[in-house]
Design a protein that fits this description.
Elements: H1 15-25, E1 28-35, E2 42-47, E3 56-61, E4 65-69, H2 70-78, E5 81-89, E6 95-104, E7 106-110
Antiparallel strand pairs: 1-4, 1-7, 2-3, 5-6
């Protein structure tokens, strides 16, 4: 099973739609980075979304204010989590693994933007 999420919309985008999407994703937004693992820590990652973009490396410290492309802010809020599983008994008394909740590793709190997709 792949850890990468499948795209929700499988329809191919027109070149005009791709250009508009790319321009929106590259719009710079300002916010505060929050690191939950470890609290008060830092987070280093590389990111590239669109064909033709360069791979950019980011290092962010908890509580600091950053100006990043919208696509990076969305990535931090939507993709930086892991599942917490719990072991429970089913109604027949047999042990099962239940996928509990998403545990966020970090987030990007908006100071000026709002995500149109949410």
């Amino acid at each position: 099973m792949s850890a990468i999420a499948k795209p929700r919309n499988t329809r191919k985008m027109t070149p005009e739609e791709m250009k508009k999407d790319r321009e929106r994703d590259h719009k710079m937004v300002k916010g505060i980075f929050r690191c939950y693992e470890p609290p008060g820590g830092s987070f280093t990652f590389s990111f590239k979304k669109h064909k033709g973009d360069h791979i950019l490396k980011y290092t962010m410290v908890d509580g600091e204010t950053y100006e990043v492309p919208l696509m990076v802010a969305k990535h931090l809020n939507q993709n930086c989590w892991y599942p917490r599983h719990s072991h429970v008994m089913d109604m027949n008394g047999k042990p099962t693994v239940d996928v509990g909740k998403k545990i966020n590793r970090c987030s990007f709190e908006s100071l000026e933007f709002h995500d149109e997709d949410e």
